[in-house]
Amino acid sequence: MRSRILVGAFALLACLIVATTVAKGAADPMKRWALVNLIEPTSIAGIFVSGPVMFVHDDEKMAQGLPCTGVYRFVPGKGPGEEIVSFHCKPRSGSAPERFTAKTIPDPYGPRILTEYQFAGDQEAHGVPKAQH
Prior knowledge:
The chain has 2 helices and 8 strands; from the N terminus they run αββαββββββ. With 133 residues, the chain is of the alpha+beta class. Strand 1 and strand 2 form a beta hairpin.
C-alpha cells in the first residue's frame, strides 16, 4: 500500500510540473523560452506561482550580471503578460532533455519549491534560488 502511494505521488508530481511546452525561441539565439502550465502552486524564487506561465532565459542579461531568468504570466490567445518573478540562475551542464523539465522539492509548510529548470534540447540546466536577490 505504501509503495502505491509513493508511486502515485511521484507520477502526480511529474504531471504537475512538466506540462505544456512550446519550442524555444528561434528568432533570438540568446533567449530561450517555454510555456508551462503549473497545475499546482509552486514557489519560484520565493514567489508562489500557478497556472500558465512563460519561462524566459536571456544569455545577454546573464553576461551583464543581470537577473537572467524571468517568469511571466501567460494569457492564452494574448501572449505573455506581467513578469511574476526574475532571478539570477545557477547554470550547470547536463544532458539535454526532450521536453522542458522542472525539478522541485517538497515544503511541509507550503507549495513545492522549484529548484531547477531546463529547456528541451538544451544541455544547460538552470538552478533556481530559494528567494529573489
